[in-house]
Amino acid sequence: MSTSLIYTPVDEIPQIHQSLKQAFTAGKSRDIQWRKRQILQLWHLVEDNFDLLRKALYDDLGRAPDESDGTELNSLLLEIKQAYDNVGKWTQTEKAPWHYMWFAMSPATRIEPKGVVLLITPFNFPLYLILAPFAAVIAAGNACLLKPSEGAPACSSLLAELFPKYMDQEFFRVVNGAIPETTKLLELQWDHITHVLNTGNSTVAKIVCTAAAQNLTPVTLENAAVIDPGVSNLKVAAKRLMWGKLTNAGQICMSPDYAIVPEHFQDTFVEACKQAYYEMHPKDPRETGNMARIVNDRHAKRVKRLLDDTKGEVVLGGSIDMETKFCEATIVKNVKVDDILMSEEIFAPILPVVPVKDVDEAIKVINSLGNALVLHVFSSDSAFKKKVFDNTQSGLAIANETLLHIQTVGIPFGGVGQSGYGATTGKAAFDQFVHRRGTIDSPFWLDTMMLYTRYPPYTKRNKTMLDMFMHPKPPA
Known about the structure:
The protein folds into two domains: 10-196 and 426-435, Aldehyde Dehydrogenase, Chain A, domain 1; 222-414, Aldehyde Dehydrogenase, Chain A, domain 2, CATH 3.40.309.10. The longest helix has 26 residues, at 65-90. The chain is globular, with a radius of gyration of 26 Å. Helix 2 (32-48) packs antiparallel against helix 5. Helix 6 (153-166) links the parallel strand 4 (143-147) and strand 5 (172-174). By secondary structure, the protein is of the alpha/beta class. The chain has helices at 13-26, 32-48, 50-61, 65-90, 128-140, 153-166, 179-187, 203-214, 234-246, 266-280, 285-288, 297-309, 359-368, 382-390, 426-432, 446-449, 460-470; strands spanning 94-95, 108-113, 116-120, 143-147, 172-174, 192-195, 219-220, 259-262, 313-316, 320-321, 326-327, 330-333, 350-356, 372-377, 394-399, 434-439. It contains 17 helices and 16 strands. Belongs to the aldehyde dehydrogenase family. One of its GO terms (biological process) is aldehyde metabolic process. GO terms for molecular function: aldehyde dehydrogenase (NAD+) activity. One of its GO terms (cellular component) is cytoplasm.
């Protein structure tokens, strides 16, 4: 279904930006109760319009409503609730550890908002990836401009319609558009930019980082990759892996991109993955509606190019209907590291299987492809998991699971190195939207006891006293 998305006039964007800066400067958002009211309004925005949001996700992605509930909308409500429940705790001033030299000065760290934040997000989870970090933005006390993806026009249009009804428009605005509008946004000075990428390659990331660097603005980015060298409970492992690969038609930044398996194990592994697929989809998903579609024609053409040009052996699926943008669940074995399927994030329900000699070669392959956003290891051997995790870098290290880590309360979600930096969920997201402001309050009476020794004229007695308190002893 096609939805007409009304773009924000480019010449209005600087005015919106300036009004947000003025609102933040006025100071209303420093009140914790105001933040809680706004977070609660965000909850109602989602809860009151649950069916409309489900329909928008279906219109944009062809995603089954039950899948949207489980992977996007319910997860979003959990993030909003976590922000509401913890905003008071997260914003408390943190006292420094006690030290005999400094305790009287009450050293502490104030948790303060950064200012005006820009959120730019992708099409693959067009509600969660913009509203989950937005909940943290509110909790942190910032003003915010949200730029949803033009690749998900139904969701972006609905957000623009709902925001004035629920959110404080002095502090929170939605801007819709494409390249001209985004370019104008990136020309402006922001106190923080979060750009959640879905493309996997670093081209767009470099554009955003370059624009942000011109204004010395912090940025947050994302990317993804995976390893699966083998596991004892193969049936469950294969089912979890295929679920992670096929959910949202593979259009998830943390979907397993590829599987690495021992050469002798490849055929066994492939057969287990095929059986897992048939268990989850006993009937053609084109008819049941249980698999999403590729988001638009441009991405469908890209996916077709990947399928046409791979030198691997297609053992399941392998075709895409360009009219409906339905891509079959596809497994490709005997994929080499230099294959086209390994050249970019696939963002489709296609699983390349890379055979290797052993775990050492698997580690070399992972490290040669840059830092993953998510590195999965399916194994029952603790030493095996430790070896892989200890000798690689990734945003997250996940054992024997896919996708659920984004919903896990208490751990950060974000990349490292080429897969980006910063985090998008929970307390870790809140932390990136606040400034940690150091503070001390030194009583005047300290000068009568010891601090007078710092002043000239310098004497031997004062130097001895100063060294007694301030010259540290050897650590060992």
